[in-house]
Amino acid sequence: MSLPPEFHEIAKRVNNWGRWGAGDERGTLNHISDEVVREAAGAIRSGLRVPLALPLQQDGVQTGVIPGRVNPLHTMVQINQEIFGPGTIACSDDAVTFGLQAATHWDALTHVSHSGKIYNGRPAATITAHGGAEFSGIDKPGHIVSRGVLLDVARAKGLDRLAGGHAVTPEDLAEAEEFAGVTVRAGDIVVVRTGQMQVYLAGDKHGYGYPSPGLSVRTPEWFHARDVAAVANDTLTFEIFPPEIEDLWLPVHALDLVEMGMLQGQNWNLEALSAACAEASRYAFLLSAMPEPFVGGTGTPVAPVAVL
Questions:
Q1: To which CATH superfamily is domain 5-54+104-307 assigned?
Q2: Domain map (residue ranges) of the chain
Q3: What is the mean pLDDT of residues 63-78?
Q4: Average pLDDT of the residues of the chain
Q5: d(CA 40, CA 187)
Q6: β 73-81/91-97 pair status
Q7: ∠ at Cα 15 (267, 305), nearest 5°?
């Protein structure tokens, strides 16, 4: 089944292939200049640090629906072992197996493809079983530090969380932007709160998954127009799920990652940040969200920190 015309029309309007050169592998992260980072540091007022990552644990957010996306399996490989002989200092070491997109994570630009292509027009076949992503792997972005802006869509509507079938539209984003009293600008990392994380934190892992609120297929154009560097939210699927357009699965992923070259973050815990921003009446902050540089990875766990 081919992608519908409406998808291709949006794709043409947000496409960034060649914008930063034929060899570019970073996409919209190119908007984060040294000047942007210097200005981002000015968003710090109190120095309050708010962590945005879920714990890495076996009882994680994954329900088994997505093949291979395994919650962290933690194993002790040595416990109080005197590896240099009796009476010496003893060591304890760990090992872990898990899907790189299992918990709070970034999707690399290679996480999805469409029509046989990945970002910047490269062949999807450059992703291989042995090497992973040859181009635009999660090891390529480098430092991800910029001004973060919380668009608290749920709070802006006076809600604890959005309903499962709510597609977050550009109008919702503009409403949250006005509520926050901040203007999204080039190089910002936007974090969108739906309140869906409350379901998981309350212990309903399956309810957290599907159906889920998420970003509408119309939102990539809103981010493109503002030259946003990256976007993250507090849901399992990032975009509205099931999809708005029948049988068009993961169109926002394809528009953001493939066409625009914009990283996506999922399963970010924005509850404490929402409360802190509301108390301070400030919704902009310094955000550090460094990807673990798995060479060839199509995603990576991340432990973001917002500094207010």
A1: Putative cyclase (3.50.30.50)
A2: 5-54+104-307
A3: 94
A4: 97
A5: 9
A6: antiparallel
A7: 30
**How large is the average pLDDT for residues 110-139?**
98
Tally of CB atoms within 10 A around 124: 15
Take residue 36 and report the two structure tokens written for it. 């942007």
- Please give the structure tokens belonging to residue 108: 């690399």
Say if pTM beats, i.e. exceeds, 0.85. yes
End-to-end CA distance of the chain: 47
- Sign of the Cα torsion 139, 216, 270, 50 reads positive
> What SS3 state is found at 160?
coil
At 65 the pLDDT is: 87
Of all residues in the chain, the percent with pLDDT exceeding 90 is 95
User: Judging by DSSP bridges, how do beta strands 263-266 and 105-107 pair with one another?
Assistant: antiparallel
Q: What is the pLDDT of residue 1?
A: 63
Q: What is the pLDDT of residues 179-213, one digit of tens each?
A: 999 999 999 999 999 999 999 999 999 999 889 99
pLDDT of residue 110: 98
Provide the 3-class DSSP secondary structure of residue 179.
helix
d(CA 245, CA 119): 23
